[in-house]
Write a structure and sequence with these properties.
mainly alpha, 2 helices, elongated
Length: 66
């Protein structure tokens, strides 16, 4: 085996975080107006079969912008 966690097939502590992260827009809690706007942007891009325009999320650290 390797000591490099990036190359290891063993579960890492940060793997548990993935199960807690929302996978769809409907699973996000709060920010109803922002979600509604984002939903329109996504649906418009899908209907045009184009990449979505750039979106910038801003705010203080720890609010889940990434």
């Amino acid at each position: 085996m390797t000591d490099n966690p990036l190359l290891s097939s063993d579960r890492q502590p940060e793997d548990a975080d993935a199960a807690l992260r929302p996978k769809t827009l409907a699973e996000f809690v709060g920010q109803a107006a922002a979600k509604d706007n984002l939903r329109v942007f996504i649906e418009s891009a899908k209907s045009r079969r184009e990449a979505m325009d750039h979106v910038l999320f801003f705010g203080p650290p720890g609010l889940g912008k990434t």
